Amino acid sequence: MIRLTELALPLEHPESALRAAIVERLGIGDADLTDFVVFKRSYDARKKNSEIKFVYIIDLRARNEDAILARFEQDQHVRPAPDTDYHPVAQAPAGLTERPIVIGFGPCGLFAALLLAQMGFRPIVLERGRDVRRRTKDTWALWRKKQLSPESNVQFGEGGAGLFSDGKLYSQIKDPKFYGRKVMHEFVRAGAPDEILYLSKPHIGTFRLTGVVSAMREEIIRLGGEVRFENKVTDLRIRHGRVEGVELATGERLDSRYLVLALGHSARETFRMLQRNGVFIEAKPFAVGFRIEHPQSLIDTARLGKYAGHPALGAADYKLVYHASNGRAVYSFCMCPGGTVVAATSEPERVVTNGMSQYSRNERNANAGIVVAIHPEEDFPGGPLAGIDLQEALESRAYTLGGNDYCAPAQLVGDFINGKPSTELGEVQPSYKPGIKLGDLAPSLPPYAIEAIREALPAFGKQIRGFDRHDAILTGIETRTSSPVRITRDRISLQSLNTRGLYPAGEGAGYAGGILSAGVDGIRVAEALAQAMLEDLQNREGAPA
């Protein structure tokens, strides 16, 4: 198979033009091209006055491939295609009685459990929240009725925090084994649209993702796995530095010497339990800030120019970074085109925001986090869990500023820049449910963060015209950008540094950020655990009686 890169075609080219372009680029006859698939399709809109074109990466089969590759030996855009198929690393022996436990059923836990099930290890999944159907109902109760369910919400439940998001499926992680491709293929098998396999910035959207996650759960069960909802792990049983099982809130004990710890970034009680048990944890950087909203049409025009609104391009996105004079980095985070700002708290009397989009991305506003990077040494010293303490304090303050009823504090961008409390909305209508309370956002974050964001917004306005428009909306606060801790693991075995058999994984453990990278990490950890189980079994069977 041959990989052909940087193949550009006009935005509105007919489907037949792609085959013709491949044939022309390689200088072969049409009959010589036996098959091809689009590996990736992207576009470049950085130059506003130039024509936007689709740019393709094609994997193809042709007659006399060796001769074609020899002719293009000096052309870096014609190369042998890499093997992107997934190849299992282990298979459970028949009659294996010990079963691994996966704690958490977000993207990381989902893929760890799926891979273990596919390899025959019959995992037991423990999820503190509810299944997607009941979880969706609980989440809407907060948004519509201001009723919070602490165990079933945007953060906790089947699908994890990624379920109520844009469903973005792209990442900048290094992926030499193409595990990301495995993630995509499994999503498509479970009902996601085929296009996620080739779009450069694929997404599914919340409502479609719920069905996909449900189908994958059923596949895990079909393969011998077990998925238990409303099963909160409250303690680990550790002996001589080796995990031996878990205790649940119900009082039940489950034995296993192999645990995947696929926590989300909001599992604060579990982080504290791990620290009590002596599991090695360290503080890590994260970011705090606000959600900003603009009309999606403003972003489309700024990013796509005359192509704004083109159906082949969809809603435009952006990615912004600014280094403030006080030394702080300010950047956009989790940009949601055509989406909404949502209430994302998992704890009573706290306010947290997040962004969400449906597959269509056709809501009126664009939103993104505008956040400031903060660091343990200078911003929250005091131990591994000091970042959690800071998050909780800020979220409680936001609850008070919002009126003590889960409404969020908000301010117009122009008023925020000028240090003036907002009293009325302009043209931009906020999407946050259950609602907002206009005022002054300055008390909601540390002064260094407020200073940096005030400086960054006009600078962003120079990159995207209208970004700092007076009536754009800032809604507070965004604190759960990533986990404030890292449950550090060995780089080779992927086990906890000081607790054998414990495999910290995904976003909560500090090893992922987003659906795709969390899924990839789940695959990596499942492979490491499976291989360790087989090695331990062989060692026990080979040991003298």
Notes on the protein architecture:
The chain is α+β, with helices and mostly antiparallel strands. α3 (107-118) links the parallel β5 (101-103) and β6 (124-127). Strands 14-15-18-13-21-19-20 form a seven-stranded mixed β-sheet. It has a five-stranded parallel β-sheet with strand order 7-6-5-11-23, covered by helices on one side. It has a four-stranded antiparallel β-sheet with strand order 2-3-1-4, with helices on one face. α3 (107-118) packs across α13 (515-542) and α5 packs across α13. The chain has helices at 15-26, 65-71, 107-118, 132-145, 179-189, 206-222, 268-276, 296-304, 376-379, 386-401, 413-418, 447-463, 515-542; strands spanning 2-10, 33-43, 53-62, 78-80, 101-103, 124-127, 226-229, 233-239, 242-248, 253-255, 259-261, 282-283, 286-295, 321-323, 329-336, 340-343, 353-356, 365-374, 408-412, 436-438, 473-478, 485-486, 502-504. The N and C termini lie far apart (52 Å). It contains 13 helices and 23 strands.
